[in-house]
Amino acid sequence: MDDAMSFGRLAEEIAREAGDMLLAKRPARPEVVVTKSSPTDIVTALDQASEDLIRARIRAVRPDDAILGEEGGSTGGGRVRWIVDPIDGTVNFLYGVPEWAVSIAVEVDGEVVAGVVNVVPRGEVFTAVKDEGAWLAGERLRCNAGVPLDRALIATGFGYESRRRQVQAEVLAHVLPRVRDIRRGGSAASDLCSVAAGRVDGYYERGPQYWDYAAGGLIAAEAGARVGGLGGKPSNPGLTLCAAPGLFEELHDLLAPLDPERDG
Ligand code: IPD
């Protein structure tokens, strides 16, 4: 089992299982167990349970693969690496806002070849395999093309540290008057799938982590979007941008001069 399709099938099976577990076990108000970079950066007991389940399922079938997970960090080595966000949109999960996801991507030799984002409360499982397309419920996904910036609905997200939020608020003040409107869904993985499905036209965020966008980025790219950073790949703390070609460049040109740590 070493081809991208098989990795995609296994990732989907595991993301569905983790999603089912989370739905079954989610209490009315999940308990916060640790705060991370700031009091707004939270982890619930179920973030950890979800990552434990995902890691155990991967290890049972592929004991030699590396895993990078939001809660458990980096383990193992080798050509194949699994990138895991056990709950993307933890604040939504905590409050019962129905926009959180289990996100799993599979990298071979440093390139993402398969990705799945299970937006659990909506029962939507987005999948993509490199060069084979992106899918939702048997339908091939295509992002919106030909939308100019001033007619674009743009999703964005915010980090947890106040300094980063200050910068993000300043950037938002420049972006909001120039676009149709802004959405802040609360899950970067789901935002990228929304670009893929044409529910928004683009997405940008300064500083999402790799596990936030690894799977969603492939899904958006396979739906025809460009995914990148300022002058290249997404990076942390740099900007991650995603939109159809044309709108991508317009967004890039709007955001590049505003970024205090231009990374390209
Ligand atoms: C967060 C969400 C949010 C984004 C933040 C992420 P988490 O992930 O994706 O939409 O704006 O940058 O950290 O902490 O809920 O896994």
Explain this structure.
- Belongs to the inositol monophosphatase superfamily.
- It is a single chain.
- The chain has 264 residues and is α+β, with helices and mostly antiparallel strands.
- The protein contains seven helices and 15 strands.
- The strands form three sheets. It has an eight-stranded mixed β-sheet, sandwiched between helices. Strands 12-11-13-15-14 form a five-stranded mixed β-sheet, with helices on both faces.
- Helix 1 runs antiparallel to helix 2 and helix 5 runs parallel beside helix 6.
- D-MYO-inositol-1-phosphate binds next to strand 5.
In short:
The chain has helices at 4-25, 45-61, 90-95, 162-175, 188-197, 210-222, 247-255; strands at 32-35, 42-44, 66-69, 73-75, 80-88, 101-108, 111-119, 124-129, 133-136, 139-140, 153-156, 181-183, 202-206, 226-228, 239-243. It has 264 residues and is of the alpha+beta class. It has two domains: 4-140, Fructose-1,6-Bisphosphatase, Chain A, domain 1, CATH 3.30.540; 149-258, D-Maltodextrin-Binding Protein, domain 2 (3-Layer(aba) Sandwich).
